[in-house]
Structures are given as structure tokens and as C-alpha cells.
Amino acid sequence: MTLVKKAAAGLLTVVLVLVLLSAGMVESHAATMDQINDGDVFLKQSRSGYCTLTSATMMLRRYAYLRGDEDWASITEGSTADVAWLYGTGLFFTFQYPASSGTIEVSSASLPGDSENIPILVSLLETHPEGIVLYDSYAPHAVLLTDYTDGTFYCADPAGGYGSGRIPLSESYAVRADNASCYWYVSSPAVQLECSHKWQFVVDTQPGCETSGTGHEVCSLCGEVKPEVTLEPTGHDLLMTESHPASYYADGSRTYVCRTCGESKTVTLPMRTGIRITKQPVSQTAAIGQDVAFTVQANGKDLRYQWYFSEDQGKTWEIFQVANGSQNNTLQLVASRQNNGLLVRCEITNDQGATRLTNTAEIKIA
After folding, report:
1. How many CB atoms lie under 10 A from the CB of residue 344?
2. Could you give all domains of the chain from N- to C-terminal order, each with its CATH number?
3. pTM surpassing 0.85?
4. Which of 11, 194, 265, 266 could pair covalently with 29 via S-S, beta carbons 3.0-4.6 A apart?
């Protein structure tokens, strides 16, 4: 067969597989790539010359695993040889394996050689996750070609002395993608890998400061899309641009600007409802008959004053009933022998219910 005819035959095989897939002749998912690459799935040939038989056995085991066959491990060199091996000749070009989950059909095809092999093998692996048996008639040797990942072919080499499990094809004994002459593959029915999903989040509508957005997750491996989800509003990123503190007499304010959307917002700061004494009454010394004044100063709104006196050194306190300024911030008295040692203080209140008492001051007669 000429190289052109071989290439056409190989490409025809790929096309037929794709047609079967598009027609829905695909088994359900049963395993991931990591599972079918488990070390227990792969085998080493039991004797020289069994490389095609052992590679085909590994392909059947992976296929059965993908199809959900719990007895995949019962597929051995011996059981494969019973239906696919002629001692002294080698592996049949086509055969049927009676797996517990159903018959597995295997076929073979030639390759054109050199660089023309590459796209054919890549396409085959895309539709045959169980792998294909790749054979180089010049070596001669066969391996199970398992996958093509990130530009590299990987395989399981049944030959002793070479890496166990899945290894780069370049590290196998003799077989290379461009020097292989033919291959065996599972012809029907096709199976697919169960995706190990690598989810990436995609924003469909950006959320605003006060408005919701939407987005969804998509698998970067298989393209599966999860249902749309709602993205909560981000809230304003506020920057204070102006501030007027509240006082005891008036409200204050603060102005903010959102750094995201530019919206401006002014917040009122309620007027202080407390009372702040800024000047305490001071003790006075005066001669009899001299005017004496006690003054308190305070911050606040709607302040009311009430002066008290004590004649027993602060044990009890009484309201000034008759005194000049007894309900003002300044209390005025006339020094006399009767009020010598008299203690005074002022109670300040407001409409908001706040109350403050001043320090105590004393009248002393000189």
C-alpha cells in the first residue's frame, strides 16, 4: 500500500469514529483520566514478544473502566490471548473481547509514516480516551499510546526496564509517533472520559454599587456551563471630601464621593445633646457687705441653671429659693457672717434630658 493510500485509510478511520460520536453511539461517562491512569491499570509484559498483547490488554482494561465495568481488572494477558493472540504470529488485526459489561470490538489500521502520523494520532486520541496500541514494525515494539497533553504524547510501555505507568512517549523503548507503522483501537462503541472539571467564573453583567450583576461558571476542559448566579452589589467606595463637625448649638455634616460611580452623598451629624462645662465656679473671699458672684459657663442648647447651697460642708444641699441669679449662669450674693463657709454649686440641664453638676465653690469672709 502506498503512503498516500495509507494516509487516506488512517484519515478515513478518524472520520468514521467522529461520525459514530455525532450519531450518539457513545457510552456514558464512568471514570476520569486520573482514574484510568492509575498504576493498577497498567501492566508489564510477562515475556519477550508480548508487547502488542500486553498493550492491547491495557487498552481493554482502560476501556472497560471507562464503561463502568467493575471487573475491568479481570482483563489480563491470558484472557486477551484467548481471543486475540496467535502464538508464533502475534495479535489479530481485528478481534472481539467478551467483557462482563458487553463485547469490546477492536480493529487496526496502518499509518502513513513520518510527520503525517501526528495529526492522525492526535485526532484518534481525542475520540479514544482509552488509548490506542501503537506499533513500530522496524523496532519491532508496541506501546499503549494514552493521550496527547500540552503538545506531548504519553504512553504506557509494557517493556521491562522502562518507566511504569504513564510516561512521555519519548522515554519509551524505540516507538515514536513519527516512526509508528500501524495501530489497534476500540472500534465500537465509543466511550468518553468523565470530566474532572476545572471551573472558571465568567462575569456576564458587572455589578454596580447599588445594582446586582450576573455571572456563571464554565469548565475549561469540557465547556460545561453552570446556571447563572446573581452577583451582589459591590457597595459604594466612599471618600470623605468635606466635614463640618456638630456643635452643641447646630447640626454638622460630612460629604462623601464614591470613587467607583462618582455619586455624592451628604450625611447629617446630629447636634450634640450633652452639656460641656467650660468654666467652673471659683471660691470667693470677701468682706462683709461685699458683693460676691459665682459664674459657670457651658456649651449646649436650651440650657437651664439651678444653684444649690450647703451649710453642712456638702452633706445636704438645698435650692436657692430667693437669690439673685439662682436660675442663671451667674449667682450673686452679699457676703455676711451668716453665709461665711457657705458652699455653692450649680446644676445644668437641657431639653434632651442631660444633667451636669459643677464643682463646689465656697464663700469666705475676710
Report:
1. 25
2. 3-188 (3.90.70), 199-231 (no CATH), 238-269 (no CATH), 276-365 (2.60.40.10)
3. no
4. 194
